[in-house]
Design brief:
The structure is a homodimer of 137-residue chains. Chain A has 2 domains: 68 residues, Arc Repressor Mutant, subunit A; 58 residues, 2-Layer Sandwich (Dna Ligase, domain 1). Helices cover 32% and strands 23% of the residues of chain A. Chain A contains 4 helices and 5 strands; from the N terminus they run H-H-H-E-E-E-E-E-H. In chain A, the strands form 2 sheets. Chain A has a 3-stranded mixed beta sheet with strand order 4-3-5. In chain A, strands 1-2 form a two-stranded antiparallel sheet. At the A-B interface, strand 1, strand 3, strand 4 and strand 5 of A face strand 4 and strand 5 of B. Strand 5 of chain A pairs antiparallel with strand 5 of chain B. The first copy, chain A, binds a DNA duplex (25 and 25 nucleotides) through helix 1 and helix 3.
Chain lengths: 137, 137
DNA sequence: GTAAGTGCAAATGTTTTGCCAGGTC
DNA sequence: GACCTGGCAAAACATTTGCACTTAC
């Protein structure tokens, strides 16, 4: 695999952000360094980097996000805005269900995603719901 | 919300299949009962049924699948073919990480997906070369 | 030099939406 | 009859791909 400036920039941006960006967000970031990079190139490289295990793909909540951190860990997703943060892996690690309980599937791993409300959305909730609207008598 | 024959058929089909179909698969199933139902209607109703909690939406592996079973349980996904089966919920249930470990998110739940190889794909593996898939946890 | 990689644009696949007719209450 | 809903088709997105040109090695 060639070491192109595009791939280097993509990986570098992904590694130095903790925001788990979408492909398009990453595209915007990399575009500051390489203004004429194309979105297709970003997608192509993300796919390759994922295949060789350099990055991780997070699909959930209808969005695809990318994570430059390959050390095992889980994630929390805000159910309001879709923002994703890291979460520590559970202690002790999970025990896989026996094959006879999962239609004979051989378990090779798992993905655990916590669901939550991020601080920003929690603040908005407090501002939006405090008073019920009273019906005019 | 009105009780239309379309919505009844969609929910009924989803409830009586254990295959966690995609929207299009469900569309094909329902079409046997209501030949001129439209894909848009299937999507609209799945969305509504999910909103009121009658069904569950599973997004992973780049596919969106639907589950008519609302009793809490987890899933196993075949990393080769994307097929999804049910898995029992872990015992004891997971303990949420403390807020300070997840950037202040308030945890409201989790989604656990086991990754595995289904019996069909395992059989094919024995005859062909293994493939790759994205990292587990 | 040459094959992998890029930019661009068109194609693909999935999900959503606007509009009006038709069914439901 | 009022108003949800559905059918249909177009639109909106996200992602992939074909092709000719570049570039890393």
């Amino acid at each position: 695999m060639r070491n192109t400036q595009q791939r280097r920039a993509i990986l570098q941006q992904l590694r130095q952000t903790k925001s788990h960006p979408t492909a398009h967000e990453l595209y915007e970031l990399v575009r500051r360094q390489i203004p004429n990079i194309s979105l297709g190139t970003v997608y192509r490289n993300l796919q390759r980097l994922a295949t060789i295990g350099e990055i991780r793909v997070l699909r959930s909540g209808g969005q695809t996000r990318f994570d430059g951190e390959t050390v095992p860990h889980d994630h929390v997703r805000c159910v309001r805005c879709g923002r994703v943060a890291d979460a520590p892996a559970p202690q002790p690690s999970l025990t896989a269900p026996a094959e006879e309980h999962v239609e004979g599937f051989k378990i090779v791993g798992y993905r655990l995603e916590w669901l939550g409300i991020c601080p920003t959305c929690a603040a908005q909730d407090r501002a939006a719901t405090p008073t019920e609207e009273l019906s005019p008598a």
